[in-house]
Structure formats: structure tokens, C-alpha cells
Sequence to fold (660 residues):
Amino acid sequence: MTAVDVAPVGAAAPEHIPYEPPRAIRWSGTGLLLVFLAVFPLIFPNPAVTSIAVFTMIFLVAAIGWNIFSGYSGYISIGHAAYYGIGQYTVALVALHTKIAAGWPTFALLPAAGLACAVAAVPIGFLLLRVRKHTFIILTVAVMFILQLLAFNFTSWTNGSGGLELPFPTWSGDFFNEPFYYVGLAAAVVACAVSWWVRRSKYGLGLLSIRDDEDRARGLGIHTTRTKLIAYVLSAFFVGIAGGLYAPFVGSVYPQFGFDPNFDLAVAVLVFVGGIGTLSGPVIGALLLIPLQQYFELQFGSANLFLIAYGVLFILILRLLPAGIAPSVTKLWRHVLVARRRAAAAGKTGSGTAQPATATLHTGGDEVAQ
Amino acid sequence: MLVLQAIIDGILVGGFYALMAGGLTLVFGVMDIVNFAQGILVVLGAYLSYALYSHLAIDPFLSLLITLPGMFVIGVAVYWSLIKPIKQDRVIMSLLVMFAVGTIAEGILDLIFTSNLVQIQTSYVNSSFSLGSLVFPDIYVYAFLMSVVLLGGVYYLLYRTRFGRSLRASMQNPTAARLVGINTDWVSAFTLGIGVALAAAGGMVFGLTNSFDAASSYDLISRLLAIVIFGGFGSLSGALIASVLMLVIQDVVAVVWSPTWGQTTFYIVLILILLLRPQGLLGRKAVRAQ
Fold:
């Protein structure tokens, strides 16, 4: 199981060492990252670079959204492309039918894309969450393929395999990517805030307890189905927003790129790499991997080398850092602290009095290692 | 008459889907591993038979003598190198590992064979014979007979041999199986080998009856998963019944309605099953799933 960075109640001993870096470091780190992301297009105005940045933001929103459900509840969905696709089609269809002007007004459709996904996620989630974890994984994929087939077959709405074309905004080439980037960044910040709230709230604790032991959680009086469904709907909302951002950016919607199995793999991989079930994991994963992926695609052109590299990387990460980057770093940091305090305790007092303190430190270290 | 023809087609095609789905469900039953790479492994089997036929002129059915053992070894190797070292969270981790294996395999196949669609073209691919007004394509009849033989072999292995008994014991209770001295690691490795080898056989037929490329694996795996869920995860006979039923339903809908909706019905049946019977036709009910 991935490390839970909420301190257990019993660990509030005098020698307690926190399970996460101090607040000052966390907040200043977040602030620095935000400032960096906010000024990024100003430092690198090259359209090739900002286009990579836009894709990064789209996947960042999707990854944070995916993690709200799959990370916190432990139910791995590899069919969230269903909502990526619904988001794309919602924006495309509404924009085309209402003849909305390209450019800024299309961004107003983002909440609609999210809401459409949330509404669709209620019956789908209700159906899928009837089964337990491994069957659930398969079903999510099945649902994604059903929607893809429907998109192919409902030609009167979706134009089938011909796809839908969205009008391009009339922004000049130099300034084309920036609006998408900043809207994406704003969506990512909102997604992060919701993810943070879920992680810290009593509701989120219920969700985490489902991840750890669903039967016991139910026994303790948690409405497991309702709890899971709420998280599922929340995550569908954000993945839908990511889709709604993607469609006007690339200017077209196709069934196989909307309901895209590779999207599922990509999102799962980057959350696993960053650290599944943590707040920072999806952020780290997306900011590291998506630029790498885009660079690979630009550099080598063909997708097959990239597929091989991605698969190998994924296996390596699963083998070397099964918990992901964020929990591994936290664990390392904590080990250093524990070692330092132990050394200090040994130096200050005689061996007899130092014993109990060392013992507490030991159990603390083991708990986080689980 | 068209409907009867559709039913016969469905049964014949269902036979070879049962091969591929059987491999998937067997692996799940023993190890709780959802072999997500099964789709691409089927395509790998198809490409192997294709390469042997086009370069060495070995008949696809004969090429099974090479591809079946070869793919068996691949399965065993994947188990020892990638699945066995997984210590925690086995179900989900192994699924993700197999997903990654599938991605790597897809990349390699795409690199070697490019993304042009190919098909194995033997003399009997397009021939058929008829009984009354019913048409029987030769290839599907051969494939059906081969499936019966192979699945019969698997059945014999499972229910009439010592290995089969160990395998079923590992399926029922891995811990107890280990306690009575069964080497569950070898059982698991062999099972994954068998599952992958069945994919090779299914792939050979797939290559004869469809034009394919590496990306065909997505369509395949989604169908196979639907069949396995329908039949009940881990149930071999469930997979057989579900394959035939699904293909018959699809073909009948294609005839009476339209081909494009055939495949959608496939999935609609799946949803109905899940609403009415979440564990599938013959599946065990999940008792305290982890």
C-alpha cells in the first residue's frame, strides 16, 4: 500500500516526527512552483515549447482528477478516457450547434464539459461500482470502448469516423498557445484545491479507508457506495474539463482520439510515477513525464519507439519505486530526520534513558514504510 | 435461414474466441492476474505465423508446432522476470505490468512489421463448402476443430493430470496449496505459459481471418475482456459458453439489424449481465475481495 501521509492518532508521542515536510517548506514549494508555472510562457515564448506546456496542463488536470478517485479510493480506473471523450464531444457539439465564436467564448464551455461528464458519471459509476476492484478495472475499459463505438455509430451526431472540426481561434500564431495554457493552469489549480480538500476532509478519510479495507470501512458505518460514487463523479468532472480543453486546442474530435486507450495508460503511468494517492504525485508525474513524452514525439516522430520507452520506464518505476516519487522522497527525508534525532539523543543522554525514545522512533519509521 | 447461418457462424467463430478468452480466464483464476497483454499477444501469435508462412512457407496450422512452444516460453519468462518479483498489491501491480508489457510488445511489433494491415493468405482462406443452403467457410471449420482439440487438451491437463490438480488447488486456495507442498510459483509460471500459448493459437486463426496490425490488439482485448466478464472471471467453461453466446448474439444482431450495431450489442449484453449478475455466468462470488 502507498504511504499515508496523515499521521495516525497513536503516533502523537513527544518524540513524534511528522509524516510530511514542515508547512513552511510545503507552502513555499507550492508557491514557487505556481510562480514558475505562471511566468513560464513569458520565459519561453517559443510556440513549440508552449504547445508542450499546454499538453502538460491538459494532462495535469486529468491526472489530478483521476487521482481523486483512483488514487484515494484504490479503485484503479483505466477507462477515464470515457470522460475525456465526453468532454471533447460536449465542447465540440455545443460550439458547433450554438455557432459560438472561436477563441475565448469556447472556454466558457469548459464547466459544461465537466458537468456533462459528471452527469454521465452518475449512472456509469453506479453500474461499475457494483463490483470489486479487479473486475472494476476491466469494466472501466469496457465502458470506454462502448462509448467509442457509440461515437463511431451515432453518425448523425458525431459524424462517426469522419470526426468533428472545430473552428480555430483567430489569435495570431505567436499568442495562440498562451490562452489555453493559462486556462489549463487555472483548471489545474482548482483541481488541486479540490484534491487537497478531499485529502484533508472527513469525507476523504472515508475514501482512504475504503482503499485500505472496504469491508471494515463499511462496518464502521461509511456509506461505501455513496462515498466512491461522489469521488468518481468529481474525477469525471475534471477529466471532462481536460477533454474540453483539448478539443478546441487541436481543433478536431475523433472517436479514437477522444475515447483513447493510450490516454488511460498515460494518465495511470504518470500518477503511478509521481505517487498514487498523494496530493503532489499527479503534479510531479505530469510535470516530469508529459514534456518528456512530447519531446520524444517531436524528436523521433514515430510513436513506436515512444511506446517501448514508456513501457520500459513504467516497469522500471513499478520495480524500483513501487510507491512513486513523492512518497519515496518523503520517506527518505523522514529517514534522515529519524537518524539525526537518534544520533542527537544518543549523544545527549546515557544509553539507559535513550532507550524508550529510540523505540518510538523505530515504530514510527516502520509505519511509514508500510 | 439467414439467422440460422448467423448462428452457425457465431458458433464457429466463438470456438476460436474461446481459445483466447480461455487463456485469459485461466491466468486470472490461478494468479488473480488480468493479463492485459493478451490482445497484443494474440497479434504477436498472428505475426509469428504470418512471418513463418511468408518467409519459410510453413503452413499456419503447422507453424503452431513452433509458435505454441515459443509463446509458452515467453509466458514463463514474463512470469519469472516481471510478475514473481512483485511483492505488494499483486493484483493491481501485475495488471499494470502486463499493460506495460503489452505497450512494449505493441511498439516492437509496430517497429518490425510497420502499421500496414496484413493477412495470412493461404489457399484455403477463401474456400468454403455448403450443406443445403448453409455455407461453411473452410478456415472457420478448421479453426473450430483446432479449438476443440486444444481446449480438450487443456481440459485433460486440468482435470486428469497431477499438474492440473495442483493448478486447481492453487486456484482454490494458494496459501493452502503451498502448505501441502505445491510449488505455486511453477504452477503460476506454467499457467501463464499456457495462457500465452493459447493466445498464439487464437492469433494464428485471427491472422487467417482478419487483416491486422499491432493496433488491432485494442479491439481484441476489449472483446476478450467482455467475454471473460460475461462468463465469470476464472471460469474456463464460463468463458467457452460466453464466447459462443456473445458471437452468436453479435452475428444475429448484425443480420437482423445492421453490422455496425452488432458489436455494440455485444457490450450492451455485458452491461445487462452486470446489472443482473455481477459475478458473470459461472463466476465465483467475490468473498471479501482485497
In short: Residues 1-43+324-370 of chain A form one domain. The longest strand of chain A covers residues 164-165.
